Each structure stands twice: as C-alpha cells, then as structure tokens.
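Task 17 of the worksheet. Students: predict the tertiary structure of the chain below and write it out as structure tokens. Keep your answer in the requested format; marks are given for formatting as well as content.
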Amino acid sequence: MEEQPDLKGEMVVVESRRYPRIPLRMKLKYRILIRGEKSRFEVSHSLADDLGAKGLAMSSQSPLQGGQLLTLTLFLPPESKRRELVDASVFKEDECNLVSILARVAWSKPRGEGRYAVGVEFLDLEPSSRKLLKQFLVDFELDDMNSPLYT
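Model answer:
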C-alpha cells in the first residue's frame, strides 16, 4: 500500500497489490524454515487478517524477518459455509479443509501489545492444497490466472 494525494490534495492510502484480497479472519499454523536446522513451530495458532491469490496478512506473537521462509497451514471453512464470510476462525479445525503452503515473509511490523502484523507471499502449494485454495478463492471471485495457484 502507498499514500497518494486525492483530488482535494489530501493523502489517502491506495491499494497497490496486483492481486486483490478480502478481509477474512482465519486460523492458521506456521513453521519457520531455517536452513541447516530442524524447523520449529513459532506458534501453534495464529490468525490471518486477509487473504488473496498471492498471499495473506496475519498476526504473530513474535517478529518475523522479511525474506524468511515459512510453511503455512490454513484452515479453510467448509464449502457450504463460505458465502458472505468474514470470520472463519469460528469454525472448529476438524470441520475445515487444511491447505499447506510454502511462503515467504514480505514484511513484519509491530502491532502493539506484544503482537506483530506480518505480510506473507505464497510461493508454492502441493497439488491437493492448490485445488482447495483455488476453489476457495473462486468462491470469493479472487482467482487470477497469473497467480501462483495456476503455475
């Protein structure tokens, strides 16, 4: 996102993403991948704040560094309950579809109260996860032929 002047000369935030996102709270797990070390879970659960075909924004209890590689597990709500959804974190894990994603931290900044806002870029998905996430995004009209989901 960047700031640009509007018609009145006032600065406004302009969305600069190539792939649109929807505000959506969703449970997720992540694991930091460190070359030469066994990967470790940083948190058992976190929450995504928004989701798109190329990435997501999430909350974290610890700061992450730009460029760090992660494995994400998203808990997608059941297909029958997706329309008009804003808070998927209300669903129990056992009623969700699990999607595994290799991702990279794009940015991280303090959010307050010992929490951090983190932007994550999707790099690769297993075929079964790709299919589940692609259908989820189609349901919200967020699919894009140029996203990593179609490579």
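Marker's comment: Confidence is low (pLDDT under 50) at residues 11-15. The longest strand covers residues 97-112.
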